[in-house]
């Protein structure tokens, strides 16, 4: 019995990609553009000895279909020669009673539908399984338990699994690594920690709460485009650079006393959005030779005014990605930024934009001009290679 499955020659937007080899008992997670990840999962599911991704029908008329009939149909598609006994065992493994076989699909709760899809794949008894966003419909308070059971059974039964999800926590079970697939391209492939802390695509950057840029390291300095925002570095050549959503200080006043460096640039608010407990703005620099385009948290309704460090700065860097060392003559503005935020109103991260949520909402709208100081010590660079 082969303990590895080759994932070379998979199809993505009419091109072949190589996701390496999948070892039995482990999982590979795919994140990125949903259509692309679903396409790649389907491509894996079309390989010999691999069970296709189980998907419940969406046609409203199919709701009258009974669970037993749907499982039989899936198992035929999977070329599985297993009988109802295997289905009952699989249903039990995922916390479903045999009586569910007599129910109609339309009567199932979301958590039951998820468990049914997992059980159907298990009932195929195939060694290699595929799933498209298997936990999407699971409520948050149940998701961790279902996901843990899924991983436990896979490891115990020696099943190799490829699945897609854009929930970062889902990928904690992806021992075989994570592939970031965006806009028809394989952007990155590696361990979850590397994908998140050194993002090369927009989705992992979004999930880890950072802006990501292309930059250049030369003669001890790190630069991003033509921007005046620079930092010391030990790297050399083309790099990616991240900057956390709270690694900048904003004010309506160019001469705000909270600013401590000469690198203050003017930007326009081009978008506003909610993200979790935070209000966030998208900024575009008035002069691209001075500033950076960036997303930044404006307020945190969890009520914590202190700045949170960006994810990359919480993870040790490897020998090939030495951290940047700020120039001794240009001290980090982190302490100054923190001091500016201490004593601010509830949830306020930038007192220079307003001392309360009400003032912030009145002062900051799409089209508002603000002044920005970036904490260059929070720039995290890593090689493109």
Furnish the topology, listing elements before pairings.
Layout: E1 4-6, E2 10-12, E3 15-17, E4 21-23, E5 27-32, H1 34-45, H2 67-77, H3 84-93, H4 110-123, E6 128-132, H5 140-157, E7 160-164, E8 178-182, E9 185-190, H6 192-197, H7 202-208, E10 210-218, E11 221-223, E12 230-232, E13 237-244, E14 248-251, E15 264-275, E16 278-285, E17 294-300, H8 334-341, H9 357-363, E18 369-374, E19 380-383
Parallel strand pairs: 5-7, 5-8, 6-7
Antiparallel strand pairs: 1-4, 2-3, 8-9, 10-11, 10-13, 11-12, 13-19, 14-18, 15-16, 15-18, 16-17
Helix pairs in contact: 2-4, 3-4
Explain this structure to me?
This protein is of the alpha+beta class and 385 residues long. Helices cover 24% and strands 27% of the residues. The chain is built from nine helices and 19 strands. The strands form five sheets. A five-stranded mixed sheet has the order 6-7-5-8-9, with helices on both faces. A hairpin with an 8-residue loop joins strand 16 (278-285) and strand 17 (294-300). Helix 2 crosses helix 4 (110-123) and helix 3 (84-93) packs across helix 4 (110-123). Residues 306-333 have low confidence and may be disordered.
């Amino acid at each position: 019995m082969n303990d590895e499955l080759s994932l070379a020659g998979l199809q993505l937007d009419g091109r072949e990609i190589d996701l390496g080899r999948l070892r039995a008992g482990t999982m590979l997670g795919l994140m990125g553009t949903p259509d692309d990840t679903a396409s790649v999962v389907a491509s894996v599911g079309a390989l010999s000895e691999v069970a296709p991704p189980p998907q419940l029908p969406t046609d409203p008329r199919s709701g009258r279909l009974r669970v037993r009939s749907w499982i039989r149909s899936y198992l035929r598609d999977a070329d599985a020669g297993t009988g109802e006994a295997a289905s009952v065992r699989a249903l039990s493994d995922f916390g479903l009673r045999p009586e569910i076989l007599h129910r109609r699909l339309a009567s199932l709760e979301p958590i039951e539908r998820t468990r049914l899809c997992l059980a159907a794949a298990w009932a195929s008894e195939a060694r290699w399984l595929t799933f498209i966003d298997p936990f999407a419909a699971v409520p948050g308070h149940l998701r961790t338990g279902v996901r843990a059971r899924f991983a436990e059974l896979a490891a115990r039964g020696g099943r190799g699994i490829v699945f897609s999800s854009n929930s970062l926590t889902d990928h904690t079970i992806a021992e075989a690594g994570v592939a970031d697939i965006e806009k028809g391209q394989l952007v990155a492939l590696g361990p979850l920690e590397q994908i998140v802390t050194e993002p090369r695509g927009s989705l992992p950057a979004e999930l880890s709460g950072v802006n990501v840029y292309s930059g250049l390291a030369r003669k001890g300095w790190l630069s991003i485009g033509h921007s005046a925002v620079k930092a010391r570095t030990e790297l050399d050549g083309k790099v990616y650079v991240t900057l956390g959503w709270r690694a900048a200080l904003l004010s309506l006043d160019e001469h705000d006393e909270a600013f401590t460096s000469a690198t203050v640039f003017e930007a326009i608010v081009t978008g506003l959005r909610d993200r979790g407990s935070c209000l966030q703005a998208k900024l575009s620099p008035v002069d691209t030779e001075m500033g950076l385009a960036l997303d930044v948290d404006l307020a945190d309704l969890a009520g914590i005014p202190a700045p949170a460090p960006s994810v990359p700065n919480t993870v040790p860097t490897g020998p090939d990605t030495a951290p940047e060392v700020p120039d001794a003559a240009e001290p980090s503005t982190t302490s100054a930024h923190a001091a500016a935020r201490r004593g601010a109103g509830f949830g306020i991260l930038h007192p220079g934009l307003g001392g309360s949520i009400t003032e912030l909402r009145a002062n900051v709208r799409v089209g508002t001009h603000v002044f920005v100081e970036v904490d260059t010590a929070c720039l995290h660079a890593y090689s493109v290679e």
